[in-house]
Known about the structure:
There is one protein chain. The chain is mainly α. It is built from 6 helices and no strands. The protein has helices at residues 16-20, 24-27, 35-39, 46-62, 72-83, 89-101. Helix 4 (46-62) runs antiparallel to helix 5, helix 4 (46-62) crosses helix 6 (89-101) and helix 5 (72-83) packs antiparallel against helix 6. The chain is globular.
Amino acid sequence: QGMDDVTTTIKSTDFFNATVGRGSALTGLADDVTLRFALKDNDNQVLSALNRHTAAALANSDATGLNYRYTTAEVIQFYQEAVDGIRDIEETKDLLELENERGCTF
């Protein structure tokens, strides 16, 4: 169940680091951490929040029938640029958070 019900290629059991193409030194997550676990990471650190919103954005970008602003490839590119120091981590997190929560009523 969960996000796998509506996604095409992204699965909650996919490994986060493999999906975003970066290793644990940059993501702060072990290589065996899944997208589902990254979604549940409630650590208050900015990198953890970026990881959480990236995992949500990956599911949203791949969801059938959801008019998500960014493609899966763009979400991955944004993440890579943030952890590589090209983009600001907090600004990237905010960008994804805004789109992830667009239309939410809670």
